[in-house]
Amino acid sequence: MIKRMLLSATLIGGVVVAPASAQSCTGVASCTVTSTASVAVPALVSLDVAGGGAITLTPPTVADLTTGYVEDAGPSITVKANRTWTLSVHTTATTNWTYTGTQGGVKPIGDLTWSETAGGTYTAITNSAAAVVTNQAKTNTGAPTIFFRTVYSSDFSANNNSVGSYSIPLVFTLSAP
Predict the structure, then answer these.
(1) How far is CA 157 from CA 5, 96, 111, 164, in A?
(2) Cα 62 to the chain's mean position, in Å?
(3) Is the pLDDT of residue 10 over 80?
(4) Which of 100, 120, 149, 172 could form a disulfide with 165 if both were Cys (CB 3.0 to 4.6 A apart)?
């Protein structure tokens, strides 16, 4: 009788301690419990901009000052995304390119323009993210293109044509909203 009471107390104690969501089984030769494994996959993206963080733009020639700009293909861009995605570009410069030199160069950020096609409609770079491409399908090999035009004045004495080095930080953002 005492043994039965201990066995009952042990079983009751085991049931009370077990979590409500646990599954269990008993059997003589075998026992089976079925569970469901699940995972929530988030929006995953990968962005590769060629050039190791540096995009070299072509220096102007005398003829380019007459044309008013120099056009360059942008870096190769590779996108991977498991849902629709958007690629944007902007600069963190507030008003001007960074100038290194002794000739008083001042080049406004708007002197760098971009387009998604060569010879297309070019837009001045700003501090706000502008979509290069939007609502693109999920991909493992996305390759959006970007082209740049660096704008120059036809006036040789203009400060945005001064001898020296100019640089502007560009931020490419891949989002999968």
Answers:
(1) 104, 18, 16, 13
(2) 37
(3) no
(4) 100
Residue 121 tokens read as 């409609």
- Domains in the chain, start-ordered, CATH in brackets? 45-175 (2.60.40.1090)
| Residues of the chain above pLDDT 90, percent | 84
Q: Which residues in 29-38 are b (16+ Cβ under 10 Å) and which e?
A: eeeeeeeeee
Dihedral sign, Cα of residue 8, residue 13, residue 15, residue 16: positive
Sign of CA dihedral 130, 133, 136, 142: negative
CB 160 within 8 A of CB 154: no
Average pLDDT, integer, range 92-106: 97
Ordered DSSP codes for 110-143: GGEEEESSTTS--EE--SS-EEEEEEEPPEEEE-
Least confident of 22-26, 87-91, 119-123: 22-26
State the average pLDDT for the chain: 90
Residues in a beta bridge with 170? 91
3-state helix, strand, coil in the chain (%, to 5): 15, 35, 50
At a CB cut-off of 8 Å and minimum separation 6, what does 71 contact? Answer: 118, 119, 147, 148, 149
The yes-or-no verdict on residue 14 having pLDDT over 50 is no
